[in-house]
Amino acid sequence: MGTVLDSHFLALTAIVTVGYQLMFFIVTALLKIDKVTDFAGSTNFVILAVLTLIVKGTWHFRQVVLSLLVTVWGLRLAIFLLMRILQWGEDRRFDEIRINLRRLAVFWTFQAVWVWTVSVPVTVVNASDRNPSIQAEDIIGWIMWSVGISIEATADQQKLAFKNSPENRGKWCNVGLWKYSRHPNYFGEIFLWWGVFLASTPVLEGAEWLVILGPIFLTLLLLFLSGIPLLEESADKKYGNVSAYRMYKSSTSPLIPLPTTVYRNLPSWFKTIFLFEFPLYSRNLPQEPQIW
After folding, report:
1. Per residue in 277-291, pLDDT tens?
2. Which of 3, 101, 132, 138 has the largest CB neighbor count within 10 A?
């Protein structure tokens, strides 16, 4: 169907993303609600994948598969998060910025950057004229996506069921996958997007390899900014003085699922370098009283 704005659809997807997020930002700002925030982010991925696939019109097998994977992930996450927020009634992440227009605008701008950047591997694949035969990278990438979304969806459902049980009120989730990772849903999300990137590599040439910035951006975002640090801070403030929670935190991997008996006995340097147990995840943990 021809080129739209640029041969890699980067300008097209940027314009669509900004417009879509701006629309929801206006709704949020006017109505002072946060029920559509996660829905807007997740569905934006779907729109970009489907749009670039249709606009290019070549329908290569790799393009169709990657677009389908992103669509399944985006719709699953959008529906889950929308139903959760409708059930819970509020998103505490936005308590401090809901009524602050400037901070709200910064958040929505950042969300637009997140969507566009992480979508870039699929955008470039869908814009490409190259169509090499299916390779090992494709298969491994699709398997990684399957494992990642299974972990993410399972962890989400386990935590939702735990939180909805009255007997667990005021407790932290430590059941199912949450026994082996403090954030298994984030592990699943990171893993599946690295799988999407890997499955895109057979068509990449030259500067197109910069699409690796997509999964790198997502990984850094969840490790250092809006993901794990915020949740660790919140949990430490709530449960930091509970000895059972401190034991859970010291024996449970922050991201990569591992048996607690294994993780507990690993040296601190190994945990920091290879398992992402960074000091910033415990900076709000109350100090244990010294016994003299």
Report:
1. 999 999 988 876 544
2. 138
Give this prediction's pTM: 0.92
Nearest-angstrom CA–CA distance, 198 and 142: 9
> Can you tell me the distance from the alpha carbon of 246 to that of 236, in angstroms, rounded to the nearest whole number?
9
Taking residue 139's Cβ as centre, other Cβ atoms within 10 Å add up to 12
Separation of alpha carbons 225 and 273, rounded Å:
18
What are the tokens at 181? 């990772």
Q: Could you tell me what percentage of the chain is helix, strand and coil, using 3-state DSSP and rounding each to the nearest 5?
A: 75, 0, 25
Is the CA virtual torsion 260, 264, 265, 268 positive or negative?
Answer: positive
Q: Do the Cβ atoms of 140 and 215 come closer than 8 Å?
A: no
Query: How distant, in Å, are the alpha carbons of 6, 7, 120, 132, 182 from that of 139?
Result: 29, 27, 20, 14, 29
Question: What is the tally of helices (H) and strands (E) in the chain?
Answer: 11, 0
121 CB-near residues (< 8 Å, 6+ apart):
66, 196, 197, 200, 211, 212, 214, 215
Average pLDDT, the chain: 92
Task: Give the single-character DSSP code of 211.
Answer: G
Residues contacting 274, CB < 8 A, separation 6+: none
Lookup: tokens for 221: 């975002």
pLDDT tens across 177-228, in order? 999 999 999 999 999 999 999 999 999 999 999 999 999 999 999 999 989 9
Q: What is the pLDDT of residues 225-280, one digit of tens each?
A: 989 999 999 999 999 999 999 999 999 999 999 999 999 999 999 999 999 999 99
pLDDT of residue 218: 97
CB 183, CB 133: distance < 8 Å: no
Angle at 66 between CA 62 and CA 68, to 5 degrees: 115
**How far is 173 from 175, CA to CA, in rounded Å?**
6
